[in-house]
Every structure is written in structure tokens, then in C-alpha cells.
Amino acid sequence: xxxxxxxxxxxxxxxxxxxxxxxxxxxxxxxxxxxxxxxxxxxxxxxxxxxxxxxxxxxxxxxxxxxxxxxxxxxxxxxxxxxxxxxxxxxxxxxxxxxxxxxxxxxxxxxxxxxxxxxxxxxxxxxxxxxxxxxxxxxxxxxxxxxxxxxxxxxxxxxxxxxxxxxxxxxxxx
Length: 174
Fold this sequence. Notes:
The strands form two sheets. The chain has a five-stranded mixed β-sheet with strand order 1-2-3-7-4, sandwiched between helices. The chain is of the alpha/beta class. The chain has a single domain (12-104, 138-170), classed as Survival protein SurE-like phosphatase/nucleotidase (Stationary-phase Survival Protein Sure Homolog, Chain: A). It has helices at 30-40, 60-76, 142-147, 166-170, and strands at 12-18, 45-50, 82-88, 98-101, 107-117, 123-133, 150-157. The relative contact order is 0.18.
């Protein structure tokens, strides 16, 4: 940030991404990586995603949500090291039930690899598969919020330590 800009920005906004960054998807997200970098640099940061992967996606409702949330973050700030992961259902603005602050759902991808060829004939693999939600019906998750027509807002931090596992692992003889 300091090399690109002449002064520290007031806000980092990443996105609007085509497709979901809910639940486990946040780990694979370039959109959220940019927001996390902002948080690392002590700049309030938000990653936005629209639940529509089509090339002609309608961003009308998403633009209103971005403005609403960005203004709140500029006005009120975020805790140090925290950025927001915002996912917006693919709906008209009037169809949205509201904005829900929630936690990241526990989930996994049942992975499948699709072998493909690039234009130069080199083989590469495209990760596909089925999304499996381990928190079905949990109303405090991003997946539930999105399935029920709410915008999900998950406060995200870059400390991925499994703190509950530290006491167990310290007992190991290593």
C-alpha cells in the first residue's frame, strides 16, 4: 500500500467478486486476500462478493450494499487486524431481508478434479465438486443468512491458529 499510494488509505475495498466467498471459500479467495492485506496494514478493509458467477451479473443491489457497509466502516472503524467478508445474495434490493452479522459456517468441498488443456496444450486441473455444509440450520452462519436472503457480514481475522488444540498438542512428546 505504501509503495502504491502517497498516503495511507481510509479504506480498502476488494471486489465486487463474481460468486461466493462464504464459509470455507474464504480460504481460496483472492478478493478476501486483498482485504486481509489491508487489515495487516492497519487499514479498515472489506471484501465484497455477489452470489452470481454470470458475466452479465446485475450489480445494482450490490452497489447499494457496498455503499451502506463502506460508509459504516469509514464512520465507525474496525478492530485492529479485522476485515469484513461480505456476501450478497443475487436478488433485487427490495427482495433482501437485511444485513446479518454472522460467523463463517463450517463446511467442506467434496472435491473433484477436472483435467483440462490450456491454449498452449499444457495440462492443468480445475477444482470442482459439491459444497457440504456441516452447520445446516445454524441461524448464526453466513450460509444460513445467504440461503434466507440476507446479506452476510463475517468479521474475519488472519490468525488461523486452532487455539483449542494447543493444550492437546503441548502434551505430545515431540
